Amino acid sequence: MEFLSPATWEEALAAKSARPDAVPIMGGTDVMVELNFDRRRPAALLDLTRVPELREWAPDGDRLRLGAGVPYAVIVDRLADRAPALALASRAVASPQIRNRGSVGGNLGGASPAGDAHPPLLATDAVVELASVRGVRRVPAREFYLGPRRTARSDDELIAAVLLPAPAGPQQFAKIGTRNAMVIAVASFALALDAGRRSAGTGIGSAGPTPLRAPEAEEFLAAEFDWAGGRPPSPAVAQEFGALVAAAARPIDDVRGSAAYRRHALSVLARRTLGWAAADYRREMAACG
Amino acid sequence: MTSTAAASVVGQPVSRVDGPLKVAGGATYAAEFDPGPGLCHGAIVTSTVASGRIASIDTAAAEAAPGVVAVLTHRNAPVLPYHEHKGLTDPPEGERIHLLQDDRVRHQGQPVALAVAETLEEAVYAASLVRVSYRPESAVTAFSDAVAHAVPPGPRYRDRGLEGDGGRGDADAALGAAPVRIEAEYVMPRLNHNPIEPHGTVARWSEGELTLWDKTQWVDNVRAEMAAVFGLPPDRVRVVSPFVGGAFGSGLRPWANVTLAAMASRHVDRPVKVVLTRRQMFGITGYRPRSTHRVALGADRDGQLLAIRHEGVSETSTYETYAEEQLGSSEYLYACRDVATRYRVAPRNVQTPNDMRGPGKVTGVHALECAMDELAAALDMDPVELRLRNDTIVDQSTGVPFSSRSLRECYQAAGERFGWSRRNPRPGAMRDERGRLVGYGCASATWPAMRQAAEARARLLPDGSAVVSSSSSDMGPGTYTSMTQVAAETLGLPLERVRFELGDTRMPTAPVHGGSWTMASLGSAVQAACAEARRRALAEIGRADADLAAVLRQIGEPVEATVRTEPGDELRRYSAHSFGAVFAEVAVDPDLCTVRVPRLVGAYGVGRVVNPKTARSQITGGMVMGMGMALTERTEVDPRDARPVNSSLADYLVPVNADVGELDAVFVDEEDPHVNPLGVKGLGEIGTVGVAAAICNAVYHATGRRVRELPVTVERVLGAAVR
Lengths: 289, 723
Description:
The structure holds two protein chains of two kinds.
Chain A: E1 2-4, H1 9-18, E2 23-25, H2 31-36, E3 44-47, E4 57-60, E5 63-67, H3 72-78, H4 84-91, H5 96-101, H6 104-110, H7 118-123, E6 127-132, E7 135-140, E8 145-147, E9 150-151, E10 158-165, E11 171-176, E12 187-194, E13 199-205, H8 215-224, H9 235-248, H10 259-287
Parallel strand pairs in A: 1-3, 2-3
Antiparallel strand pairs in A: 4-5, 5-10, 6-7, 6-10, 8-9, 11-12, 12-13
Helix pairs in contact in A: 3-4, 8-9, 9-10
Chain B: H1 19-23, E1 40-46, E2 52-58, H2 60-64, E3 68-73, E4 93-94, E5 104-105, E6 111-117, H3 120-129, E7 131-136, H4 143-147, H5 155-159, E8 165-168, H6 171-177, E9 180-188, E10 191-192, E11 200-206, E12 209-214, H7 219-230, E13 237-240, H8 256-268, E14 272-275, H9 278-284, E15 287-288, E16 291-299, E17 305-316, E18 320-321, H10 328-332, E19 338-347, H11 361-379, H12 383-389, E20 394-395, E21 400-401, H13 407-418, E22 430-431, E23 437-448, E24 454-460, E25 466-469, H14 479-491, E26 498-501, H15 518-541, H16 548-555, E27 559-565, H17 570-573, E28 577-588, E29 595-605, H18 612-631, E30 660-667, H19 691-703, H20 714-718
Parallel strand pairs in B: 1-14, 12-13, 17-19, 25-26, 29-30
Antiparallel strand pairs in B: 1-6, 2-5, 2-7, 3-6, 4-18, 8-19, 9-16, 10-15, 11-12, 11-14, 16-17, 20-21, 22-23, 23-28, 24-25, 24-27, 28-29
Helix pairs in contact in B: 7-8, 11-19, 14-15, 15-16, 18-19
Protein name (chain B): Acylaldehyde oxidase
Domain Aldehyde oxidase/xanthine dehydrogenase a/b hammerhead (chain B): 24-138
GO molecular function, one term (chain B): iron ion binding
């Protein structure tokens, strides 16, 4: 196995272009597990830990541009107000040690449907920035996941950053695991409300071949949510929202949980996150006077 | 460490004497030993069928790979004598697999080749290049198929006192006549050993002598087995194992890494290290067997037990019969005239199970104590009260009195600390501040107090210090510390002037470090050896009351005594067991059905407690294991091909820190003058016993739902509500 270790972003892009089969590695929290389990044996590893830009974040117009290698721990500690759902999801990743190393770029590169970062990216309509020697392109997260571990990224491209829209309303995230930490999600769900557009975004994790949205649930909530007052959703609305989210999932039975439980759990998580988001919404309205 | 008054050392919460060494990384574990120049690394290739013959095995690519020294298979491995050897921890029925001696495959994960190379990476790579094809043969892969052909444990188990059938009176008739009856089936999955240190061995041959640095709970048995396998006199084999990174029973038998390291080392004439991978821990070492139990209880309306019928069946391999005493506790835990037990083993094409913390009892008591809770519900009686009404001072299975028994005191002490009186008896009636359903549950715990012959040497030095040694092990309970305490107290020397050594076959012979009997067995020998050495030293100057350190300085040369102690007939005159009561609080999310355990509280009567600090750690560690058994741990075995599916710590879920709430363990005052000279009954295993039952019973109390199959997953709590 070849080990490529570029010092700059340009070198990294050149290396990826020359070796499209090279697997990028930063925190190693996904890639090393796969190597250790002998699930993959890439011809080359592309070490990106020496590329400083990947660990940077900065405003980009109205959005926050988050370098693909910013560790989850930094998102939790520093970016909770700029990316609330993603920060909540980052807190649910594994353990403190892994949160110090793992990053959103790794989640996107591996594209496991169970990755904790995906539902917030879908719900908030985040954008994935891909780069290669050919140039830079920006792909909405909602168009990024194509199939099981398949994404819109081309072989010669690296994930440079994600662009996170400024929060325009409450964001929530919830995850169920078989234990309290160090666990792959049985199911996860993110909800983002946009008060300005009066729209809702959703993201479903670990309940389908890819991370999923629940478009019908989003439309339903956009129509039913009390955007003027943020009244707690009626039980019937919450129930229907949960049912629409569950219906959007395409889960399977595996060692972590059954498909039936995953659907059930998603309906519960959807109802709960909606309740929390509505409460946040009322608080924000009160705070704005 | 401050200087401790010698006479008060036993019973004090002394911190681990080896703690600083371990924390600083100075403790050397098996795979870390340096055997000298030329060390090679072995990587094991394992079978991918449950039963059959190796049709072809192609090692050409592996042999040509960089750094490869040798690739051993059944075609080129040395033919080994494999003389008969049955240690106490070996199944008496059947025969171990003779590694790389023939083309037969008996289970998934059986070693079929070993790649030996200059580095571990080269060995692992070479192992990946070995191509094996099989002629599969019919195999029993599903547990349900194995159960259909279950058999009694066999005559050699009968000779050890483990019969398939036991009891007294006429349980069927008594059940038929009982005014209140419950009957239920409980399923417990296979549980795998997951110590953080995987099993590993460094082997070195030198002038026909074999030295093994191994992870084991019993160096003397590793020596005996390797002597038998290689046809050597035992004194030509030395086994060294000063530190063990957790074992819980996995270190009771030598696994394939030992034999393969020794075989390869002789073959290549260099030292060889073989360490099992985590995945191989699931396919090569033993485990707590999957089992199904059916319990029927009959009682009168006041809660007096009238009948117990307890049937159990557990998996074993096809080449050895592993049986454990799962049902014994149902014969002695409570007073009951009519009892019937029936235990069977179900042979399956898997590797042989082995003892895992609290073997047998953890399984059987779980079923019995869940059933007791169901009976309490059927009687509309407090579950603690039901246990106390059936308390007994006589072991009714043998008719002899218990040497000591504090079950009642344990329920009182633990119940009070837990706050059992706050329990609303109605299921589903309690909630916490987050709206979660709260449940309280309890269960009894028991473990036999056993004792083995043991030998220890005390060597008193002119500088007033002492070195005490025996070939024992310290897999975590604190043998180093507790033996130092016993020695210091007996000698009348300060703790810091006494050093205890263990883990080498060159030392006096200790019994296997297991069964919760190390303190009773070896503690007695250490006490006797130290008393004898002290007596000899004082006799040299003819004064019995002098200060030992001053006497040793005066003598000016070492004084030594090696003493072997054996149990007497006390265990025929008394039934000796530790008892305990454990209480669990659970919080269940009413919608998601996730179960969390905010608190576990246990009280135990274990005789004398030599070190309350390490003793408490033993119990709370056992509780965490019980919690894993209750909520997360299970080895999923594919019923089609008997392959463990979740053989990694990412998929086999042990509790993590974030799962563990408050753990509280106390010991009730208990003096047992009968059991052994130290008056200790053992506490290494009892902490795991009953925990899963207490949690299941608490889940029932929280939700009104009985989960009779472990672990208590969300699906099972949700039950029929899943659509």
